[in-house]
Structure formats: C-alpha cells, structure tokens
Design a protein that fits this description.
heterodimer, A: alpha/beta, Aconitase, domain 3, 18 helices, 14% strand, B: alpha/beta, Glucose Oxidase, domain 1, 26% strand
Chain lengths: 426, 147
C-alpha cells in the first residue's frame, strides 16, 4: 500500500504506540482487500454501531479506554446505534433485573466513554442517523468510516456516499486516524453491480421481504435492481426513502449487501444507468412466487408455534417520521373498522429521539397514544437478545429483527390486522 | 487426507476438529448469547444456520464460506478472542469478508497471547470435502490438511 509521509510516520510510531497500532490495524485491513492507499474521511460526522454497555463486550470498553487515555479520540463527532434500554417499553420484573444487572450493566459507563470519544449530542443514539431530524446525512461522494449495516447500505445506496461495511471498532479507528483504506465500495470498480435483479411482481413488493430475498441471493455483492421504480412513482421522495431504508436493512442483515442500485431511483443509478452493471452480471428474477417461497422459508422458533403474541415491535431500523404518521393513520382506520379503540397486542414503535420529538409536535402523536401504541428510542434487537425475551412470542415486520432474534416476521398488512383485530394472520 | 492451500489472514498453526457451516456465518447471531451469558463452549445461537445452531464453536476448526450480517461482527470476534472463546481457527472457502477480516486483524494487533489462525480463499472444493469432526491441521504457510 502506498502511504503518505504522514501516514508512514504514524505507522512507524512517531505519534505514539496506540496511534501506530490503529494505523497498523487499518493498513492490514486495507491490504487484505487490495487497498492501494489510505484516503481521508471527508464526511462531517461518523456513525458507530456500538451503543450498548453490554457486559459481554468488556474487551471493547477496555480498548476504548486505551484510546481515550492516550488522547486518541475521534477527529469527527459521531452518532451511535440506539440505546438498549427504555423504561417505556414493557418488560417483566425479571427482565428488568437481567437487563440492568447482567446484560447492560456497563451502559452508564459506556455512554460516558462515548461522550469523551466525541458523540454528537446526548441523544444521538439511533440506527437511522441519516434522517434529516438527526442531522448526520452525508453528501454524495463523501468518504465515511461508518458501521451499522443498515446505515452503511443506506448511505451508499440512497445518499451516494462511499463507505465499506466496516466492523465496530474499525469505524472509530478510521475516525481517529482520519483515514480509511481505499478498497471495495470506496472505488468506482467496487460499486459496479454484479447482479441484475428483475422485479416482476404483480404488486408493490413488501420492502422487508424483497430485501431479504435479494440479500440471501447476492450475499455481499452489488445488485442493480430493474423494475422497482414502477412501484416508487414519486422517485426518491420520503416514501421511497422509507421503503429503501427497510429494504436495505433486510439486504444487509439477511445477506451482506453494502450497496444496491435501483434503476431510475438511487442517485448513481440515475446518473450512470446501466453503465453501473459489470460484465457477465448474474440475473435474479423476483416474482410473487419467489417472495412467497422466501416468506415460507423462515423458521418459526417459538416453542409454541401458535402462541398468542405478547409484544409487537416495529422500527428495526428505526421508523421515519412519515412512517410513524402513515402507521398512525392505518391503525386509526383499522381500529375503527374492527370496532376497537386500542391495539390488542402491546405494540412498540421505535424511532430516533429527534424523530420522536418531531412526531410529538404533530397531532398524530396523541392519536397513536390513544390507540395504545408506545413509542420508544430503544433498539428492539438489544431488548430481544436474552433468554427471557427469547421465550416471548414477539411479532415484527422487521426482517433484521427476525434474523437476529426469536421474533416472528409478518408482513405489514398482517401486523396491522393482528394488532388491531387480533388472531394470527397465517 | 487432502491438502488445500489458501491465503494467510492471521498467522499461526493449530490442529482441531472441524465444524462446518455451508451458509454464511452470522457472527453476531452466532456468538452473542454465548458471550453474554458466559458460555465457555460458545454454543452457536443462530437459528438460521442449521449446520451450526446449538453446536460448540470454541476450540473448533470453523470452516465456512464467509460471514454475514451485522457490522458488530468484527468486534464480536475480537471479544470472543479476548475472552478465550474463539474457534481454534477460521477457514474460509471464499475471500474473507470485511467484518471477519477486521475481527481477525483486531485480535492479532491488539491482543497479546491470543491465537486464532485465519486462512481464506481455500476454494469451493474445500468446503464440499470437509465434514464435521474431521481433523484439521493448519500450517503457517496457509496449507490446510483435512483428514
């Protein structure tokens, strides 16, 4: 790898052992993937995946202490993934003990570490940092050192920024050094599509199902999606951004997609069109039957398969403002249709603190509250990942949550029916 | 017995019993519960991986195509290594992905006295040949012996 004089001196230890190790980590990481150089991080803010003071991750906090104590803090301010705990979210006495005393006992200390390392502000905890209400929205072409798979895929695809699927810790190290290795999704070549995905469904495909199908098929490769634009008639408007947020999160968690192009919609696809497709790209056709096949393939790991759901989580990744409003309208209508006033399953909608604040300023917040829905900034995944929550029959329309936990996936329409009418939808 | 040659990602030699995943290993889903609840065997908790679900990963020669899923993947591997719950080695049939690569390098650069040899690019034939409980020997030049 060609290093500048400054980079070589850092690597040689002229700015201390810790920074030398950081540079060594980044250089070896880059060399593994054929990086030719280290390029400057150009975004205003970073985003970190590690937001939770999980006892099990003690080695990470020890490493962060070494960075702080040696003065190697982030050159950029950053946002971080959602907090793992929120007293608003229903939990049992036992769950509270497990959450506070065993799992997230390091939360307070870890948030203090993040403050010292450079978090944007005290509530900059969300997986959807790119929402305008949050303010960490990189511009097209900017180079990032982000992690959080759903945020990386969104930044690359919907915003046209450039970021590899960095791991936690690597994200912070790129920000401390101010450089990231130039490979993969940072390069023009790495952003070419090696799959063409043809959408041939008879109706707008469920974002979370389509993302899952494509993720499982293309894994870490880049798909160029044809035919989805007919279902996104407003171009890259707020609805489309919300759709692509959920779609992308499913491609990244059910596979390892870091970038997708949607013909006539996403910025690079609009600018370069089919020139983005690499030679000999493979083809994957998605029709109604294929989506049904994928849906049927999901294992249900509830002990009692027909258990009545005890909790519904929506918002993994966190919901957008227009998504909160749309769902409020849908719930209000559906409750009226079934002659009810409140949801029949405890339901939690999660969103960024800044988005929730905006939502509270709308009249829909009162309507949603009246319908019995709880809003929260929590990370549903962090809530679910323990033996107590695992035994709970939880439903969701998040394919990411389904992948990492025992939560059972249903389509948006099925979720709506279950929480407003009751009964199982399949 | 068969020999395969790959690329060395993290140096080291070891001999261990094989544990084979034919699908991508979801690092967070596989290791999280084990790390959280003190499971020294690092029992795989990924419901979507029928090859590994419920099996011990610590001390095994983990043979896989790639890792997938959350970008916590690298730090989860780093923690598994730091807490001595890592596989004896990780052997990838494909080119290693950025998350597993980061985990292997973080452990190598930042942890003393921890060894987890990692070899990638072993080829499709490696993954179709190797079966659970076969004996794997990793040599320091990227040669992997399966018997």
């Amino acid at each position: 790898m060609n290093l500048t004089k400054e980079q070589q001196e850092i690597l040689d230890g002229k700015q201390g052992d810790i920074l030398a190790r950081i540079m060594k980590t980044l250089v070896r990481y880059g060399e593994l993937f054929g990086a030719d150089s280290m390029v400057p991080v150009t975004s205003q803010y970073n985003h970190l995946v590690t937001s939770f003071g999980l006892k099990a991750l003690a080695p990470v906090y020890e490493l962060m202490d070494r960075l702080i104590e040696s003065g190697n803090v982030s050159k950029q301010k950053f946002s971080a993934d959602p907090r793992p705990l929120d007293p608003n979210v229903p939990s049992s006495f036992l769950q509270n003990i497990v959450f506070k005393n065993f799992m997230y006992s390091r939360q307070e200390d870890y948030e203090k570490q993040l403050t010292r390392l450079g978090i944007m502000e005290k509530d900059a905890y969300t997986c959807t940092c790119y929402m305008k209400e949050v303010g960490n929205t990189p511009a097209m072409g900017e180079v990032l050192s982000w992690s959080e798979s759903s945020a990386v895929v969104y930044a690359n695809s919907v915003l046209g920024a450039r970021c590899n699927r960095n791991s936690g810790i690597i994200d912070l190290m790129g920000s401390v050094a101010g450089f990231v290795p130039n490979f993969g999704l940072l390069t023009d070549e790495g952003r070419k599509a090696t799959w063409i995905v043809r959408i041939e469904t008879t109706k707008k495909p469920e974002a979370q199902l389509l993302g899952s199908a494509i993720g499982m098929k293309v894994m870490a490769e880049v798909p160029y999606i044809v035919g989805l634009d007919q279902w996104l008639p407003g171009g890259l408007d707020e609805d489309a951004k919300t759709y692509l947020k959920d779609f992308g999160a499913a491609t990244a968690s059910n596979g390892a997609v870091g970038l997708y192009h949607v013909e006539n919609i996403t910025p690079e696809a609009v600018q370069y069109g089919k020139d983005l497709i690499a030679e000999n790209a493979k083809v994957y056709v998605v029709d109604d039957e294929e989506l049904n096949r994928v849906y049927r393939s999901y294992p249900v790991i509830w002990k009692k398969k027909d258990a009545a759901p005890k909790l519904c989580f929506m918002g993994c990744p966190h919901m957008s403002l227009n998504q909160l409003i749309d769902w409020t309208k849908k719930i209000e209508e559906s409750l009226k249709k079934y002659g009810k006033t409140k949801v029949c399953i405890p339901t939690v909608f999660t969103a960024a603190p800044a988005v929730l604040k905006k939502f509270e300023e709308t009249p829909y917040a009162a309507t949603l509250k009246q319908a019995g829905v709880i809003t929260s900034y929590i990370c549903p995944l962090m809530y679910m990942n323990n033996p107590l929550s695992e035994k709970m029959p939880v439903i969701t329309s998040s394919n990411k949550l389904r992948t990492y936990t025992s939560a059972r996936y249903y389509t948006d329409a099925e979720i709506l029916e279950q929480i407003t009418k009751g009964g199982t939808a399949r | 017995m068969k020999e395969f040659k790959g690329r060395v990602v993290a140096n080291g030699t070891t001999t261990a019993k094989a544990l084979v995943s034919h699908g991508g290993l979801n690092t967070l889903a596989s290791f999280q519960k084990a790390l959280q609840f003190g499971d020294k065997k690092a029992t795989c908790g990924d419901q979507n991986n029928p090859d590994l679900y419920g099996k011990q990963m610590a001390g095994k020669a983990l043979c896989l195509p790639t890792t997938i899923g959350s970008t916590t993947g690298g730090l989860v591997l780093y923690c598994a290594c730091s807490m001595n719950r890592q596989p004896a080695c990780m052997l990838f049939s494909e080119t290693i992905d950025s998350l597993a690569g980061a985990g292997a390098i973080l452990a190598d650069v930042w942890l003393d006295n921890v060894s987890m040899p990692v070899v990638d690019s072993l080829g499709e034939e490696f993954l179709s040949y190797v079966k659970d409980d076969m004996t794997i020997t990793v040599k320091d030049d990227g040669v992997v012996v399966v018997e």
